């Protein structure tokens, strides 16, 4: 029996016990409050407790120290709205129909853990970015699937350009002030940071040192890139400052010990070859959990987990039945164990995928890819290798092209200096082979594709088979050459590419 099967079996037993426990009298253990905290575009190494010298994240570090720090948790997609949908539904992106692609719709028929919590008696709320971007109203939702908004408290002037004016912590306080104290709460804090744009040069202006930056191997090591990364660090710290205020509020109100706190991000850093890519810096996420004395402290866990496991875990902790529609598995029993640490077990694996990101290609085409990540290897299947992974280089009428990479100084630098850095430019911009395979232990930046090397053929075969098995079991339309994802509407900005470009409409050519 593998770990996932074991977790599912033990989780069902734990769930039954939890349902009995939480239905008993008031002198029994109270149901936990839940604070779910998610930044926007933060790859996993960028927190001080992970050893990053130029990012100071005392609040994240506190959650990790007083609870559990996870080293191997992975997003379901390297983009915000499809991954957030998977967090809510406990399902792979290819199981979520329109919600499996970026800036589309969210089918009302998909069960989400927030609804299950609310039906069981939880008071729920959300500040900042919940599920999105996308149009949830059009699908029949009365509120964002992440919860009703608490966004009235705002700054007259945010501290710098690029930072949202919402006072996230004050909105959490407003939620706490109005909620029924006899009921447990679930609150979603969704920062818009460190999503671009950044105020250029704010990192250096804040006293950060270019020399402290370790530039990922997929980017040029140049002062322009280092400065851009420091600007990114400033926005991570802003996100963390609001988390710190929220933790202090829970402390002051005597609520923190019975609050299950999860802190993470939605996808990787907004730089070339990171965000919107299935490489490590696109899907490998920071993740820490705290729950008073229920979760033993000072632990690091190396086991692999997927974001589809979050919804079942939260429902499990709350004593709420887990819908059969959820593919993920609760890891509550691992949280509650007193073992000091755990190591990733051979054979463990997670799956992720991507479809459309922005309107970056003619006809509003997607770039469909799927991947499997084990403790050592990352295998990627690029299903339409004839398409440009970062978006078409020309055709939109805009100067830079490659629109699946966020506009930023690092992108502009790479485009202007591609002759000086031809390998890095090709890695970020050029078309890719159908199959990619990376040995993560030797190549954490995913720069050497070993898929065609003789010594890796058996490993590649095994990973491809395991990936196809998961796709088959979970009904991925792409496995049967369906192009239904090409039909789904995009409600965000459309560019002037040739072909279909009607904002918010289904493409009739693929229905």
Question: Using only CA atoms, what is the Rg?
Answer: 22 Å
- Strand fraction: 5-15%
Give the CATH class of the largest domain: Alpha Beta
The H-level CATH homologous superfamily of the largest domain, spelled out, is Alkaline Phosphatase, subunit A
Strands, total number: 13
Helices and strands, in N-to-C order? HEHEHHEHEHHEHEEEHHEEEEHHEHH
Approximate helicity band: 25-40%
Cα end-to-end separation? 41 Å
Tally of alpha and pi helices: 14
Which sheet architecture does the biggest sheet show?
Answer: 9 strands, mixed
Protein model, in words:
This protein has helices spanning 3-22, 58-65, 80-89, 113-119, 168-178, 202-205, 223-252, 280-283, 310-318, 332-336, 409-416, 422-429, 457-473, 484-487; strands at residues 33-39, 68-74, 123-128, 185-190, 259-265, 284-290, 299-301, 305-306, 341-342, 349-354, 369-374, 377-382, 435-439. Strands 1, 2, 3, 4, 5, 6, 7, 8 and 9 form a nine-stranded mixed beta sheet that branches. It has a four-stranded antiparallel beta sheet with strand order 10-11-12-13, with helices on one face. Helix 5 (168-178) links the parallel strand 3 (123-128) and strand 4. The longest helix has 30 residues, at 223-252. The protein is an alpha/beta fold. The protein is globular and about 60 Å long. The protein has two domains: 3-199 and 232-342, Alkaline Phosphatase, subunit A (3-Layer(aba) Sandwich), CATH 3.40.720; 349-510, 2-Layer Sandwich (Arylsulfatase, C-terminal domain), CATH 3.30.1120.10. The chain is built from 14 helices and 13 strands.
């Amino acid at each position: 029996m593998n770990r996932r099967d074991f977790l599912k079996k033990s989780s069902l037993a734990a769930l039954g016990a939890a349902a009995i426990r939480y239905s008993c009298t008031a002198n029994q253990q109270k149901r936990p409050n839940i604070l779910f905290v998610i930044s926007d575009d933060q790859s996993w190494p960028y927190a001080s407790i992970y050893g990053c010298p130029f990012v100071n994240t005392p609040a994240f570090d506190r959650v990790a120290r007083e609870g559990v720090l996870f080293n191997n948790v992975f997003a379901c997609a390297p983009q915000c709205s499809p991954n957030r949908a998977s967090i809510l539904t406990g399902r792979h992106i290819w199981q979520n129909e329109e919600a499996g692609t970026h800036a589309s719709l969210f089918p009302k028929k998909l069960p989400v853990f927030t609804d299950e919590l609310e039906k069981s008696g939880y008071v729920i709320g959300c500040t900042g970015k919940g599920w999105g971007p996308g149009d949830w109203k059009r699908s029949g939702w009365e509120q964002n699937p992440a919860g009703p908004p608490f966004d009235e408290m705002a700054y007259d002037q945010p501290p710098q350009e690029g930072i949202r004016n919402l006072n996230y912590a004050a909105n959490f306080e407003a939620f706490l002030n109005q909620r029924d104290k006899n009921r447990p709460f679930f609150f979603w804090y969704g920062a818009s940071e460190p999503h671009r744009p950044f105020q250029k040069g704010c990192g250096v202006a804040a006293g950060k040192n270019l020399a402290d930056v370790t530039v990922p191997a997929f980017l040029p090591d140049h002062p322009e890139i280092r400065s851009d990364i420091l600007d990114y660090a400033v926005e991570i710290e802003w996100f963390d400052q609001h988390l710190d205020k929220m933790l202090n509020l829970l402390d002051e109100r005597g609520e923190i010990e019975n609050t299950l706190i999860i802190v993470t991000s939605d996808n990787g850093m907004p730089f070339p070859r990171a965000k919107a890519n299935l490489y490590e810096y696109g899907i490998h996420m920071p993740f820490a959990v705290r729950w008073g004395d229920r979760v033993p402290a000072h632990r690091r866990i190396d086991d692999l987990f997927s974001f589809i496991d979050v919804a079942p875990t939260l429902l499990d902790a709350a004593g709420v039945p887990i819908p059969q529609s959820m593919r993920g598995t609760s890891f509550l029993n691992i949280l509650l164990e007193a073992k000091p640490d755990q190591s990733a077990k051979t054979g463990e694996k997670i799956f992720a995928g991507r479809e459309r990101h922005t309107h970056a290609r003619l006809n509003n085409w997607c770039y469909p890819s799927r991947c499997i990540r084990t403790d050592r290897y990352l295998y990627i299947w690029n299903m339409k290798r004839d398409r440009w992974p970062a978006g078409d280089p020309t055709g939109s009428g805009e100067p830079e092209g490659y629109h699946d990479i966020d506009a930023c100084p690092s992108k502009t630098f790479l485009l202007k200096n591609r002759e000086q850095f031809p390998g890095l430019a090709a890695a970020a911009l050029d078309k890719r082979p159908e199959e990619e395979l990376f040995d993560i232990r030797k190549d954490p930046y995913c720069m050497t594709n070993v898929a065609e090397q003789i010594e890796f053929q058996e490993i590649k075969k095994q990973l491809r088979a395991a990936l196809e098995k998961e796709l088959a079991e979970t009904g991925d339309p792409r496995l049967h050459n369906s192009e239904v994802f090409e039909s789904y509407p995009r409600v965000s900005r459309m560019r002037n590419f040739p072909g279909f470009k009607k904002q918010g409409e289904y493409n009739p050519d693929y229905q």
